[in-house]
Amino acid sequence: MKKFNFRKVLDGLTAASPVGSSSGGSGSGAGGSVHPGGTAGAAGTPREEIQETLTSDYFQICKTVRHGFPYLPTALAFDPVQKILAIGTRTGAIRILGRPGVDCYCQHESGAAVLQLQFLINEGALVSACADDALHLWNLRQKRPAILHSLKFNRERITYCHLPFQSKWLYVGTERGNTHIVNIESFILSGYVIMWNKAIELSTKTHPGPVVHLSDSPRDEGKLLIGYENGTIVFWDLRSKRADLRAYYDEAIHSVAWHHEGKQFMCSHSDGSLTLWNLKSPNRPFQTTIPHGKVQRDGKKPESCKPILKVEYKTCKNSEPFVIFSGGLSYDKPCRRPSLTIMHGKAITVLEMDHPIVDFLTLCETPYPNEFQEPYAVVVLLEKDLIVVDLTQSNFPIFENPYPIDIHESPVTCTEYFADCPPDLIPVLYSVGAKHKKQGYSNKEWPISGGAWNLGAQTYPEIIITGHADGSVKFWDASAITLQMLYKLKTSKVFEKQKVGEGKATAEIVEEDPFAVQMMYWCPESRIFCVAGVSAYVIVYRFSKHEVNTEIASLEVRLQCEVEDIITPEPETNPPFPDASSQPPSLKSLSGSTNTVACEGTMKDSIPCLSVKARPVRMPPGYQADLVIQLVWVDGEPPQQITSLAVNSAYGLVAFGNCNGLAVVDFMQKTVLLSMGTLDLYGSSDPYQRQPRSPRKSRQFAAGLTELSDSPVSLELERCKSPTSDHVNGHCTSPTSQSCSSGKRLSSADVSRANRRGPGRPPFRKAQSAACMEISLPVTTEGTVLTLKGAVLTFACLDCMGTLTHQPYEVWRDPHSADDGDKTRKRKLVMHSPSSSQDMGDHQFAVICSEKQAKVFSLPSQTCLYVHNITETSFLLRADVVTLCNSVCLACFCANGHIMTLSLPSLRPLLDINYLPVTDMRIARTFCFTNEGQALYLSSPTEIQRLTYSQEMCDNLQDMLGDLFTPVETPEAQNRGFLKGLFGGSGQAFDREELFGEATAGKASRSLAQHIPGSGGIEGVRGAAGGVIGDLTRARIALDERGQKLGELDERTASMMASAEAFSKHAHEVMLKYKDKKWYQF
């Protein structure tokens, strides 16, 4: 039996008592958590030695940039002069893309879906129409776009908008069939309205339906083409306020497209037909085709097809016109994929897509609608992808997309973020990743090339790693707030492919996605990479620049507790789990699927969940599997999923654990060094020992024992303190609802963690991993157990000066290098031992943070120096010890949305901001902090949101972001020639200002729409910068805007002077011509 030294215990309590009071009200009673076994002699010294430099002024929360594909896209727009693309989404977001590095995210406050987007071409502005019947004008002349004006319709629903090129009047069609006109500059409705009952013929008895199309004639800007849903087309004369012509078709209209000469237009219909109309004979279409309809033998009309949702009609000077449309496929092929059809002359090309088509746009050489369009590319927006097709080549290849829009290629299950990596890593990863790129792309440059971007002041390399449900791992270059994929690793290649029906035979832990990546551990210096999969396996990878063909070494580890060793606590304190003998034991996997353990035939024992390839495997340059470690079935029960993982390249060890115990493997010698059950690991130091009772022989489970350092509070008390931890993601964590197949007693934290996490990282991995690495062999189970409230999230060590102690590592060397030959290679190790420890004493600090609190212990005395109770009503999801401004702090993310930072080692609160409530398990699973004040999380299934908690980076963010708007001259319109000008269009100039202005048209009804001034312009930068930096930024933007307006004024003045000079010259010539003639000679 262990002897206690009561004097040492009293000394420890005396040293701890002032610490508890120093943490304020939150630290009361924390002194009792210090366990005997350490002296308090060194407790006072570290406080006086550490000079903490971080203050609250160093911290500020700010979103930096969002990467990935816009989630649930709904709308698409392109500026042909600025060459930037805008995508609207169902969640009210807008993503604006230009050249690589120019990527901007905007969000409507209402969150209403974006129906349509319209660029003010080459004006640095964008109009968005939303599902809440509001129009918004966005200012794109600043790095963070902001809304200048909003117009909310009260009585009518917006269905379609059209903004003519170089016009300040926006046409707005509504569900009632009316067309309103909005002044873009003031965002006020004009009194000019085209009512539906005036547009259609008086004899028509039915409502024509909503407005589905608006466009002005390329030949005459004074004529407006209005398309109604029921098939009615009206050609409206804006000057005379009457319909010039009306056309009717018996199928609903989906879209309309003009021929550039303005004499013909094409409509797409709900029966899969295209109709071509001539303005001279509007009684019926002069051409009707169903491109994908089967031609009937008896000469009847081809059978109907699916609706053609959109058509574009683009002309070329030297070839046949392009007719491009989406939809229109035959009904007799229900499994056919969504397609885009390109008709060029007699050639018809069908491009099949992997996802449904949301919208598409044809990119043309000219912004003028009355010139030959000369299309060169088609941008196709799919539900989960963005594709650009090259129209200049006959086989229509696609462009290689430079944006990181394939993050969601397989669902992301976990993330890691590394700032200030070794500088040679990014080129090396890119070089091995570039060899796997696909061929067959267009050889032309990416056509969406607008905006400007530079590196900015931030130059340190950053790498993001994403693990996916299909077992793939992607490495991304995240330097300077950009994102580019470097390298892709497929972890599933080390296993045999499962044949149909074989999955049930092997009885893996999860039925779906058995290769899902659950955790990752990467040592950038040694380039050792380790992956833990959801099917209870660990793969150790080494990096090599050479291709090899070799067998994959594998180990099997038996990790299971003995049920007979369990000592159950009092039933009135912690009710046991239901008797498993009354029902088949089952394991609730992290992905939510269940798999019955009982199987036919013999009981499974010592069988892994997956089969490693036994034959030699070709491994390309990059990360190559060195060792596969698998947990095996024990007595008919599957292995529990791995919950903690750590690797040390200097010692050649990989340590991992789950709810059953801990294993340590030497991955250099390929041997298991330690495999110990949780009960054996604790031994007599188990803090959850209750009064001894007779162990129950039946298979049952009780709440109480948790991983290395959970709190001794009861299940009911814990649930009282963190109600949110019991019902995250809809899972119940009450003890009566969980049936477990292991012989381990689970605490509330254990059960809630097992249910709460998807195939991602459990939050207590680092503490357990760090403890694993501290174990010295041979292992003795005697020692001190340090307890905290809730499951432990992170563990770190500081030296006597308060500097973060980095783990030792082996310098990377290529394992398959031909230079070394057969000679023995000497390992080069880098040890991080503090140089001043001899002078300052050999004490260190251990920082441990759990779901509820953080503690700092002095080592080796194990005296608790500082305690901070972080939260009582919620729980932490992520905590990391990070470096910022050459100092160290503890960064925490709480389930109630708060982001907090604490100083080290004193645990003083430095930042506490309510940033983002956890509404989805995805956020909890992917949120991670890194050094230099950066963090990220998956904001949607397809997007990564990066943020900073550093004030310095917030101040410099404006310089790092790309410019959406760059000064570009609008191309001049082609000279139409004298005859075309005389006979090809209207001789009368069209003045929209005179027609739609308040003087002529009057004011619109105030109840129809409400004008809401926006917060754009100079005020839009207030959130992006503060203090003197913000003032300078605002002054610079104001100066830029003023300079731009002055430049435009100069251009207009020069243009007026030139026309005045030309007029003077012509007048002088006329005077000379008629000077000497008499009146009768005229």
List the uncertain runs: 1-46, 503-508, 563-601, 690-781, 834-840, 1018-1030
Share of helix, binned: 10-25%
Order the strands across the largest sheet as they lie in space.
Answer: 6-7-8-9-59
Annotated CATH topology of the domain at 249-293 and 302-402: Methylamine Dehydrogenase, Chain H
Description:
The chain is α+β, with helices and mostly antiparallel strands and 1082 residues long. It has a domain at 249-293 and 302-402: YVTN repeat-like/Quinoprotein amine dehydrogenase (Methylamine Dehydrogenase, Chain H, 7 Propeller), CATH 2.130.10.10. Helix content is 14%, strand content 33%. It is built from 16 helices and 59 strands. The strands form 16 sheets. A five-stranded antiparallel beta sheet has the order 6-7-8-9-59, with no helix packed on it. Strand 52 and strand 53 form a beta hairpin.
Key phrases:
five-stranded antiparallel sheet; five-stranded mixed sheet; repeat; Methylamine Dehydrogenase, Chain H; single chain; alpha+beta; 1082 residues
Question: What layout of secondary structure does this protein have?
Answer:
Elements: H1 6-22, H2 45-49, E1 59-68, E2 73-79, E3 84-89, E4 93-97, E5 103-107, E6 114-120, E7 125-130, E8 134-139, E9 146-153, E10 158-162, E11 169-174, E12 179-183, E13 188-194, H3 196-199, E14 211-216, E15 223-228, E16 232-237, E17 242-248, E18 253-258, E19 264-269, E20 274-278, E21 287-289, E22 308-314, E23 322-327, E24 339-344, E25 347-352, E26 357-364, E27 375-382, E28 386-390, E29 412-419, H4 425-433, E30 462-468, E31 472-477, E32 484-490, H5 502-506, E33 517-523, E34 528-533, E35 537-544, E36 548-550, E37 553-557, E38 586-588, E39 594-596, E40 617-619, E41 622-631, E42 644-648, E43 653-658, E44 661-666, E45 671-677, H6 678-682, H7 715-721, H8 748-756, H9 765-774, E46 792-798, E47 809-810, E48 829-830, H10 837-840, E49 844-850, E50 853-859, E51 863-869, E52 876-884, E53 887-894, E54 898-903, E55 909-914, H11 921-926, E56 928-930, E57 934-940, E58 943-950, H12 951-960, H13 978-983, H14 992-996, H15 998-1001, E59 1009-1013, H16 1027-1074
Parallel strand pairs: 37-41
Antiparallel strand pairs: 1-58, 2-3, 3-4, 4-5, 6-7, 7-8, 8-9, 9-59, 10-11, 11-12, 12-13, 14-15, 15-16, 16-17, 18-19, 19-20, 20-21, 22-23, 23-24, 24-25, 26-27, 27-28, 29-30, 30-31, 31-32, 33-34, 34-35, 35-41, 36-40, 38-39, 42-43, 43-44, 44-45, 46-49, 47-48, 49-50, 50-51, 52-53, 53-54, 54-55, ...
